[in-house]
Amino acid sequence: MAVKNNRRVLVTKKILKESLLQLMKEKPISKISIKEICDLSEMSRSTFYLHYQDQFELLTDIENEVLDKSFESLSDLEGAFNTIESIEGFLNYVRTNKETFGVLLCQPDTADFQEVIINKIQAHVKDSVPDFEEMKTDKYLFVFLMNGSLNVLRAWIKNDFDMPIPDLAKLIYYSCHNISSANIIKQ
């Protein structure tokens, strides 16, 4: 059933998303019922089913929105994706949306989202650095860099953003740059 994206629909979806994220802080999505989402959001089951088939479709909607807005915020920046400024822009977006990223990046149930965001970042970096995968070791180096950066981001979120954004952006940028430029394994 098609539902117009009028203001009431947008507000309803926002409340449902916030309710799911709140519940996911406490337990895995597979253990969350539609009834719990509806109780927390103070909405009926029929309202929920008007917009989503189940909690997994709701989570997918949250993930897609976050991905779109993450890369939208990065596309507003001048210059290449792999600069300190672009990393700062992304970190600002993460901190502004700390509840959402706290769940999406720090919960085991969201491993698919984490893989998608890594793949999207990889595609953007490859566009910025076209000769990145010239050597066969580069794909493994990139996996190392991306997973290391993701774990730094998780630690920053879990430590309540205890490092200033410019400092963390420089740490990530220079760590990645130094590791990639030290790639001494040749074909």
Give a quick summary of the entry.
The protein has 187 residues and is mainly alpha-helical. The protein is built from nine helices and no strands. The protein is elongated and about 55 Å long.
Q: Helical region count?
A: 9
Taking pLDDT < 50 over at least 5 consecutive residues as the criterion, the unreliable ranges are: none
Order of helices and strands: HHHHHHHHH
Number of strands: 0
Distance, first to last CA: 55 Å
Can you characterise this structure?
With 187 residues, the protein is mainly α. It has nine helices and no strands. The relative contact order is 0.10.
Which key terms come to mind for this protein?
187 residues; mainly alpha
Set down the secondary structure blueprint.
Layout: H1 7-24, H2 34-41, H3 45-51, H4 55-75, H5 84-96, H6 98-104, H7 111-128, H8 138-158, H9 165-181
Helix pairs in contact: 1-2, 1-4, 4-5, 5-9, 8-9
